[in-house]
Design goal:
Strand content of chain A: under 5%
Largest interface: A-B, 107 and 112 residues
Helix content of chain A: over 70%
Shape of chain B: flat
Number of domains of chain A: 3
Shape of chain A: globular
Oligomer: heterodimer
Number of helices of chain B: 9
Strand content of chain B: under 5%
Order of helices and strands of chain B: HHHHEEHHHHH
Radius of gyration of chain A: 26 Å
Order of helices and strands of chain A: HHEEHHHHHHHHHH
Mean pLDDT of chain A: 72
Number of domains of chain B: 2
CATH topology of the largest domain in chain A: Arp2/3 complex 21 kDa subunit ARPC3
Strand order of the largest sheet of chain B: 1-2
Number of strands of chain B: 2
CATH architecture of the largest domain in chain A: Orthogonal Bundle
CATH class of the largest domain in chain A: Mainly Alpha
Low-confidence stretches of chain B: none
Number of helices of chain A: 12
Structural class of chain B: mainly alpha
Distance between the termini of chain B: 47 Å
């Protein structure tokens, strides 16, 4: 579910950063006392635990040869409460991005939102809603599985929403959404089963770990969370509108496509002469347009464009080759210079 | 699991390694922003953007095998999506590439464009993380005003990943030494869940011990480091080169 940079436009990526950043800092601020009291190493180690737990594969019964693993957001929010759980999972997502290169740097905000914040809170809320303070095994299993289905499906639904808001989506939105949901349905059921089994085990072995006190203490008012969310959305909307008014079409490509595409309909009608001139200038200095409209099939311009783009690619390859050669020539010297 | 596995090449002593982490982080972000903002149908010009990360890999002596494996590991989701794109019907475009002329569907062009952009930004990220030790990456992030609480979390997380993964390795080894066959879904799941549960309990124990140890040593929420990272001339030079490179490419190609 890790999104890459290419799936998002800048405003959405920034919006993701704003929302998840403000949400995270709100939680950090709220649970500062508990964290600096005695929970500081706890969350880091829980993050490390998620990595370790993901090494244990669960073979899937219906699909021989495939296996699934724990995701962990729901488990952590059940064990230590959603606030601390969300912080731990967020740090996991950040490390996955920086160290393991899962998900892009620009998409990090949206990824934290999708995979850490929304599942932790939503899952915990539904888990508590169904469990309702009774700890009978059946109820535990039912609540965990439902919670994990809702949480993971919600997270999976956020991906197509963000992508389509970015304007990158060319697939019909509904079909993308359906694909994501069906793919994640299996994962979410398995995740619920694993989480329930782990929670049952912990209840059997060391029941005091599932800290009712901890979860009571962090029984945040849902209203406040929604309020923060709403404010963040408002801020994002303002930022978006500013961006939109500064650049007629904040999605850069819709502007950039114009010079090479004669029949391109501008999204915003801006008929000033200056812009036209800039467009023309850009289309003139665009050295390597590697496509042209079908109408210009046999025109010489199209063919020469083809040659320039070939030359461009070759040039880039040659440059890289030269860099390599130069460094390999320099290498023995640098070794020789060493004592 | 050996510590080396994750940042194997990050403690080298080339010129790229010695550049300040802040400058590298900001350069990687800038590079990603520029690449993501490029037009969606162009393919050939994108290869010019590969020169930057390529040069860094060469200068930092990072083997390409390592880089490629990193990119391939991260690829499945984006490749699946891009392939989904390529099945959509859309008007075809005339593509001229040297002596060859092809009619290629627009969706295929977008598909290729997405994959190339992905490779570019991933190699920038790899160039950042493979040449910067995680601790200085965190130091740089802290200097860039990322909340200290989060930085502490990440530092502790990174410290204990290896420890816990070792524990899991032991569990898995002893499990595979004792189990001879597949025991059925339910039984397997109970066993594995019990493993996860006991790892969770032991990590809670570890965290309690660590907390006591930190308190005993007078930890006050701040890491006092000896090195005062300062931005030097070569950092400015690197930042200037990156900016120049991106601006020049952006202006010349589009």
């Amino acid at each position: 579910m890790h999104m890459q940079n290419e799936l998002l436009s800048m405003p959405i990526a920034i919006g993701g950063f704003v929302i998840s950043g403000s949400w995270l800092s709100y939680i950090c601020h709220k649970s500062k006392k508990a964290i600096y009291g005695d929970k500081l190493p706890l969350m880091g180690i829980l993050g490390a635990f998620v990595f370790a737990a993901q090494m244990i594969n669960f073979p899937l019964p219906l699909f021989p040869g495939t296996s699934s693993h724990l995701i962990g957001a729901l488990l952590l929010s059940i064990v230590v409460g959603p606030n601390l759980g969300a912080i731990a999972i967020s740090s996991v997502v950040i490390v996955q991005c920086l160290v393991f290169q899962d998900g892009g740097l620009l998409a990090l905000g949206c990824n934290i939102l999708n995979m850490a914040l929304v599942p932790s809170y939503l899952g915990y809320w539904i888990y508590n809603l169904i469990l309702h303070n009774s700890m009978s095994p059946k109820r535990l299993y039912a609540s965990t599985i439902v919670a994990s289905i809702v949480a993971i499906e919600a997270a999976a639904a956020l991906v197509p929403i963000e992508v389509s808001l970015s304007g990158v989506l060319k697939v019909p939105f509904t079909s993308f959404l359906l694909t994501m949901e069906t793919l994640h349905l299996i994962t979410s059921v398995i995740e619920g089963l694993i989480t329930a089994a782990v929670v049952t085990y912990i209840l059997k072995v060391r029941p005091q770990v599932i800290n009712t006190q901890c979860s009571r203490e962090s029984s945040y008012s849902l209203r406040k969370v929604f309020a923060t969310f709403a404010i963040a959305t408002l801020i994002m909307a303002t930022v978006l509108s500013i961006l939109a008014s500064e650049k007629p079409d904040a999605l850069e490509w819709s502007y950039k496509e114009r010079p090479d595409q004669t029949n391109f309909e501008p999204i915003v009608n801006n008929d000033s002469e200056k812009i036209r001139a800039v467009d023309n200038f850009e289309s003139k200095i665009a050295i390597m347009p590697d496509y042209s409209s079908p109408k210009a099939k046999q025109s010489e311009a199209a063919i020469s464009n083809g040659w320039t783009s070939l030359a461009g690619v070759l040039g880039a390859l040659i440059t890289m080759g030269l860099i390599w050669i130069v460094t390999t020539i320099l290498k023995p010297n640098s070794i020789r210079n060493k004592p | 699991m050996h510590h080396n596995y994750i940042d194997r090449y990050s403690d080298g002593n080339t010129i790229i390694h010695s550049i300040d982490a802040r400058v590298k982080i900001l350069s990687a972000i800038l590079f990603s922003i520029v690449v993501v903002g490029l037009p969606r149908y162009s393919i050939a010009p994108l290869i010019w953007f590969m020169i930057g990360p390529f040069t860094i890999f060469i200068l930092a002596k990072i083997p390409f095998k390592f880089v490629i494996s990193r990119i391939v590991i991260a690829a499945p989701f984006i490749v699946a999506l891009a392939v989904c794109y390529s099945f959509i019907d859309s008007e075809s475009r005339q593509v001229n590439f040297g002596p060859w002329q092809m009619q290629i569907r627009e969706s295929l062009l977008i598909c290729a464009n997405i994959i190339i952009k992905f490779t570019l930004t991933m190699s920038a990220l790899t160039a950042l993380t493979a040449t910067t030790p995680f601790s200085s990456l965190l130091c740089g992030l802290e200097k860039l005003y990322v909340p200290r609480l989060l930085i502490l979390q990440l530092a502790i997380l990174y410290r204990y990943i290896f420890l816990l993964i070792d524990i899991v390795g032991r569990y898995l080894r002893s499990y595979s030494a004792r189990s001879l066959r597949y025991l059925g879904f339910k039984r397997e799941m109970t066993i594995r869940s019990a493993m996860i549960g006991s790892i969770l309990i032991s990590s809670l124990d570890i965290s309690e011990r660590v907390n006591l140890a930190m308190m005993a040593r007078g930890f006050d929420g701040k890491i006092h480091a000896l090195s005062q990272e300062k931005i030097r001339g070569r950092d400015f030079l690197f930042a200037a080169i990156v900016c120049m490179y991106l601006v020049v490419l952006k202006v010349i190609l589009w």
